């Protein structure tokens, strides 16, 4: 029998001298049927930066597949262990689109290769991981509202591992796991090849049709073996903690996306991403792309889901609590190419739920749980076991040679759809629907970036300002002449929020912010352009303007949404700061500040949890 064209292509994957290749099934959240498998052949090389990788080819289709290690964050000025993991690029020379059945319906290249697992297990015990969680929960950072994903590693040896075994593991994932954003194998080839095999639910940044897109994902529901039942899924969807954790993740990704997109950012969802053993909630955020695909990827931080929030503080906590580098875990796989019109396009996925195998057959699967001040060490350890088991069950179980069954959509039940619709309706209308055009001729707003939260800074707040008020400029607190620029600015000044305790006696950053706030309060006259503050900015202004104002720890935990009344209107507002400002003999908490030209609000205007942030901002700057 003459081999089919598909079979002749697949035969090249077998043997020790297989060229560098990648197998990808990219499953969009809105696609019910399984996507096809893309097979890429090319040349693998190590580069120092994405700029060095150069542009994709001129032809439509994929041109470059980049493997960005976690240590890439150092290029953004963020702390991380530098373990030397290289940034690798596969330059695509061939692109084949194959049906899933080419891998699942029959043996490839003859008999299926055996897969032997030796010396398998976690490198840290449950007890040690629980101690790690306890250490973090007891830290000042956790009490200050920091959430961080802390990892643990499962390792094994795979004697005789090679491309054929990698393809067999990919086949098992295709058969067992239909809901991943990317299911993939990437094999770098060469004398010391590295192979990544995974099924990640987390897409990150993309450019498609002229829009930059991100897919923040958070929340984990452990799926029963016979599938989710609405009666069990509804409490998960109604859980306030789960809803707020997803919103916090969306807020963090919005800060990144707003620095990459032009006006008109939108939030869709939440949706359910159903996998074989887990369900996750996710949103889709997008806006007009302000840069090309490679620049967008170079500027995008890794997903906050795999780091934490606030971002810079989470990076510091990972550096402190994890003793080794992450390799590719938490990094990105990014596919850069061109659409039919010749414009660059981008799709990327976070490297989680991924087995990384070195040239000696040493395998590592990293998993983590997002830990905060309210975390249960036992629950977080259990979550890491569930995540590891979800991947390992698929990789270690030899499935039947048949096409995978596509499970029923988790949102098929009307009550589940209604619950998701209620979650959507509770989000900020500014982000879900947009706002009216800003008034013409408004004075530019000067926004003070208080620092402390990585390169994204106050990008989401600036996006809100430009949409509601008009032009805005940003000055960092540590820029030369920043304090003088704030005082001299003839229009409104807005002090943005950021991490940190406002009465920190030893922090040079906080001391500089206090000096700037005091100068603004002293120099601005009643009836002049307003000086406004949000979150930390509000706290700094309140301490400067009110003699009896003082800082106290916020009760009830950080990051919670609350019902408040502001300027005579009730709204839901997000309070991410771990400390509050109180005044008077009764210690009354201040939510709103109006002292002449000085004004502000304690909560986060740009959060998707704040239902009328746009309306409040108009009051502050008007």
Secondary-structure topology with pairs:
Elements (H helix, E strand, L loop, with lengths): L4 H7 L9 E6 L10 E11 L2 H4 L7 E8 L18 E12 L2 H4 L13 E5 L3 H12 L2 H4 L3 E11 L5 H14 L5 E6 L7 E6 L4 E4 L2 E4 L2 E6 L7 H9 L1 H18 L8 E9 L3 E11 L4 H7 L8 E2 L1 H11 L10 E7 L5 E7 L3 E4 L4 E10 L5 H20 L17 H12 L3 H5 L11 E5 L9 H10 L3 E5 L5 H7 L4 E3 L12 H16 L7 E4 L1 H10 L4 E4 L6 E7 L2 E7 L3 E5 L4 E2 L2 E4 L2 E4 L11 H9 L1
Parallel strand pairs: 19-20, 19-21, 21-22, 22-29
Antiparallel strand pairs: 1-2, 1-7, 2-4, 3-4, 3-15, 5-6, 6-14, 6-18, 7-8, 8-17, 9-10, 10-13, 11-13, 12-13, 15-16, 17-18, 23-26, 24-25, 26-27, 28-29
Helix pairs in contact: 4-11, 6-11, 7-12, 15-16, 16-17
Shape: globular
Query: Quick check: average pLDDT?
Result: 89
Q: How much strand?
A: 25-35%
Count the helices. How many? 18
Task: Provide the gyration radius in Å.
Answer: 25 Å
* Largest sheet entry: 13 strands, antiparallel
Give the % helix.
25-40%
| Oligomeric grouping of the chains | single chain
- What's the β-strand tally? 29
Instruction: Give the distance, in angstroms, between the N- and C-terminal Cα atoms.
Output: 78 Å
Query: Uncertain spans, ≥5 residues at pLDDT below 50?
Result: none
Give the class from helix and strand content and strand pairing.
alpha+beta
């Amino acid at each position: 029998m003459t081999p089919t064209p598909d079979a002749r292509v697949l035969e090249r994957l077998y043997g020790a001298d297989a060229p560098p290749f990648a197998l990808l099934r990219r499953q969009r959240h809105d696609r019910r049927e399984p996507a096809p498998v893309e097979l890429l052949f090319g040349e693998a090389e190590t580069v120092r930066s994405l700029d060095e990788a150069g542009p994709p080819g001129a032809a439509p289709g994929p041109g470059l597949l980049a493997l960005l290690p976690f240590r890439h964050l150092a290029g953004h000025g963020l702390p991380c262990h530098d373990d030397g993991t290289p940034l690798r690029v596969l330059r695509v020379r061939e692109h084949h689109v194959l049906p899933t059945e080419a891998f699942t319906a029959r043996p490839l290249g003859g008999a299926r290769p055996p897969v032997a697992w030796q010396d398998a297990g976690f490198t840290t015990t449950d007890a040690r991981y629980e101690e790690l969680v306890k250490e973090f929960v007891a830290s000042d950072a956790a009490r200050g509202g920091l959430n961080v994903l802390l990892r643990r590693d499962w390792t094994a040896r795979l004697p005789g591992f090679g491309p054929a075994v990698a393809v067999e593991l990919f086949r098992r994932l295709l058969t067992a796991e239909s809901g991943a954003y990317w299911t993939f194998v990437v094999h770098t080839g060469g004398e010391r090849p590295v192979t990544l095999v995974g099924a990640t639910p987390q897409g990150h940044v993309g450019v498609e049709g002229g829009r930059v897109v991100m897919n923040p994902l958070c929340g984990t529901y452990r799926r029963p073996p016979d599938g989710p039942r609405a009666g069990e899924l509804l409490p998960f969807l109604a859980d306030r903690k789960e809803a707020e954790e997803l919103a916090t993740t969306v807020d963090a990704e919005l800060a990144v996306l707003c620095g990459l997109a032009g006006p008109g950012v939108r939030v869709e969802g939440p949706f359910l991403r159903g996998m074989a053993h887990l369900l996750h909630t996710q949103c889709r955020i997008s806006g007009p792309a302000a840069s090309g695909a490679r620049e967008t990827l170079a500027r995008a931080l890794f997903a906050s889901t795999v780091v934490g929030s606030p971002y810079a503080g989470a990076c510091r906590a990972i550096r402190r609590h994890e003793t080794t580098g992450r390799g590719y875990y938490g990094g990105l796989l990014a596919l850069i190419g061109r659409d039919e019109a010749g414009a660059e396009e981008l799709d990327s996925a976070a490297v989680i739920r991924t087995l990384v195998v070195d040239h000696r057959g040493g395998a590592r699967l990293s998993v983590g749980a997002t830990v905060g001040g309210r975390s249960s060490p036992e629950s977080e350890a259990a979550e890491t076991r569930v995540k590891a088991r979800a991947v390992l069950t698929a990789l270690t179980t030899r499935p039947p040679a048949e096409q995978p069954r596509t499970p029923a959509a988790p949102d098929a039940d009307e009550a589940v759809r209604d619950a998701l619709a209620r979650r959507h309706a509770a989000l900020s209308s500014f982000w879900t629907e947009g706002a009216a055009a800003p008034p013409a001729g408004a004075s530019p707003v000067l926004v003070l970036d208080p620092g402390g939260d990585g390169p994204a800074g106050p990008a989401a707040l600036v996006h809100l300002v430009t949409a509601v008020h008009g032009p805005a400029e940003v000055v960092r607190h540590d820029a030369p002449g920043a304090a003088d620029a704030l005082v001299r600015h003839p229009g409104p000044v807005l002090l943005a929020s950021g991490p940190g305790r406002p009465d920190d006696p030893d922090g040079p950053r906080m001391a500089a912010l206090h000096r700037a706030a005091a100068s603004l309060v002293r120099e601005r006259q009643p009836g002049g352009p307003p000086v406004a503050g949000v979150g930390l900015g509000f706290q700094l202004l309140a301490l400067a303007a009110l003699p009896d104002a003082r800082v106290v720890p916020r009760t009830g935990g950080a990051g919670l949404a609350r019902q408040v009344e502001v300027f005579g209107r009730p709204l839901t507002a997000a309070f991410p700061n771990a400390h509050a400002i109180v005044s008077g003999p009764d210690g009354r908490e201040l939510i709103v500040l109006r002292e002449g030209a000085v004004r502000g609000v304690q909560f986060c205007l740009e959060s998707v949890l704040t239902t009328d942030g746009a309306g409040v901002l108009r009051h502050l700057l008007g």
